[in-house]
Design goal:
The protein is α+β, with helices and mostly antiparallel strands. Among the domains are: about 80 residues, no CATH class; about 70 residues, no CATH class. The protein contains 15 helices and 16 strands. Helix 5 runs antiparallel to helix 8 and helix 7 crosses helix 8.
């Protein structure tokens, strides 16, 4: 439950507030739904996979900002979903790789209190059962996030509840030995952190700097003030801290920050820090105007070898392409089906952009030795090559060049030469030639007509 306080009335939930962090979660949700699309496309009778969710991505997006409930018990999900449906709360759940016992449940932020109440009721009912198997321990409020991180790493489903005596961590007895090990590790980690200090001091220009000193290792680091998630990553990479230890160390700094510093410090997301890269709203030089209504986002998680590209239309339709070798025909089929596009030129423009981003194979272009170029008005001209024919504008040289490159697979230099030839053509001569051809065609209506048998010679 990264980055959030324990709720006063119930269960802790992770809420991603930063706009880019929210985008990252939404894009990952698209990937999860897309995976299920193709995992189940050959069998409509297969039961729904938990990782795919119970509602569409469009439904969640229409509801506004999205938040999540991590480390939720897979065993309790059926009851949770039943109550969520009754309360008309759209939810989606994914099961992370390597996690057999827990799920991450996504829902709209406006439903947070209702979801909180549902989870609290489920936990309290389990505690009231005569032969209840639930156990609980009390932990400090400041330790909730780090302790949750440790439980999540061990795939232990836990819930936290605020009481008069403090924060209660509730878990199933089946995980008691695992949790005891987590508690022991947590205590050792706390002892180790007594030899670590993180302070914030201004540099010569007055900008805040983070000073990290670990006396046990004899190491000292200095870095620009950053988000909490980035500091956690640096502590793990540079000082070898476990994720739990890094989270607890980063939390200790929060109390010494100003309100403005704290707002920025907490504005990141663990989701972003788990990515090698996350590039959203990608734009290319000399981009085809037909791709402007579509958002292109490229991402890659650190624990995966395959990058992903999501393409989303203004109406919320989307398609996910994988960095694995994907033939152009299959990519086109997915784009038409999921983006609901029928216009061939728009599909081609999207394919070409996906190709340049490395997610679609390069088409086998047929290069023609000769192109037919004909200026047919003061501002337009036609280019024909094989079965392809395009009409272009002489008033917009940049767009004409781009369309020639997209339609015929030619270089920018060759496209410029063709445009130059069209500009040099005489419009009057072209119109005269067209008129002559029409006259010839009209005068040859009986040309090559076969004589009927018995006709007079």
């Amino acid at each position: 439950m990264h980055g959030d306080d324990v709720a006063s009335a119930g269960v802790t939930m992770a809420t991603d507030i930063a706009s880019k962090a929210t985008e990252a979660i939404l894009e990952l949700l698209k990937v999860g739904i897309e995976n299920e699309r193709y995992a189940n496309r050959d069998s409509k009778d297969k039961p729904r996979v938990l990782s795919g969710g119970e509602v569409t991505y469009q439904r969640l997006k229409e509801g506004g900002e999205i938040t999540s409930l991590p480390s939720f018990s897979k065993e309790d999900y059926g009851e949770f979903l039943k109550r969520a449906k009754k309360a008309d709360i759209p939810v989606a759940a994914i099961q992370e790789q390597g996690k057999e016992n827990t799920l991450t449940v996504f829902f709209n932020t406006k439903d947070e209190q209702a979801v909180n109440a549902i989870v609290r009721d489920i936990v309290q009912e389990k505690l009231r059962q005569p032969e209840q198997t639930e156990r609980m321990i009390t932990i400090d409020r400041d330790h909730v996030e780090a302790f949750q991180t440790a439980c999540a790493a061990q795939d232990i489903p836990v819930n936290f509840m605020q009481t008069k005596d403090g924060v209660k961590c509730i878990f199933n007895a089946a995980y008691e030995k695992q949790l005891q090990a987590v508690v022991a590790d947590f205590r050792n980690m706390q002892e180790e952190l007594t030899k670590t200090s993180i302070t914030i001091d201004p540099d010569k220009r007055g900008k805040p700097k983070l000073i990290i000193e670990d006396t046990a290792q004899g190491k000292k680091l200095s870095m620009n003030f950053c988000t909490k998630a980035k500091l956690e990553r640096v502590l793990q990479e540079r000082l070898g801290y476990s994720e739990m230890k890094a989270v607890q160390a980063a939390n200790a700094l929060t109390a010494s920050l100003t309100d403005q510093q704290r707002s920025y410090y907490m504005s990141s997301s663990r989701t972003l820090e788990q990515m090698d890269y996350f590039d959203t709203h990608i734009k290319l030089d000399h981009e085809n105007v037909l791709t402007e209504p579509f958002s292109f986002t490229k991402m890659k998680l650190r624990n995966e070898d395959t990058p992903r590209l999501t393409i989303t239309s203004g109406s919320g339709n989307y398609v996910v392409l994988s960095g694995n070798s994907l033939n152009r025909e299959e990519a086109e089929q997915r784009i038409r089906q999921h983006l609901k596009i029928t216009d061939a030129e728009t599909v081609t423009a999207i394919l070409n952009k996906a190709e340049k981003l490395g997610f679609v194979e390069t088409p086998k272009q047929v290069q023609y030795k000769e192109y037919q170029i004909e200026r047919d008005s003061q501002s337009t001209f036609m280019v024909r090559g094989g079965s392809t024919e395009v009409r272009l504008s002489l008033d917009d040289r940049l767009t004409a060049r781009k369309q020639l490159m997209d339609s015929f697979g030619m270089t920018a230099a060759k496209a410029d030469r063709i445009i130059a030839k069209a500009q040099k053509q005489s419009l009057a001569r072209n119109l005269l030639d067209q008129a002559k051809r029409k006259v010839q065609d009209a005068g040859n209506t009986l040309k090559n007509k076969k004589r009927e048998r018995g006709a007079r010679k």
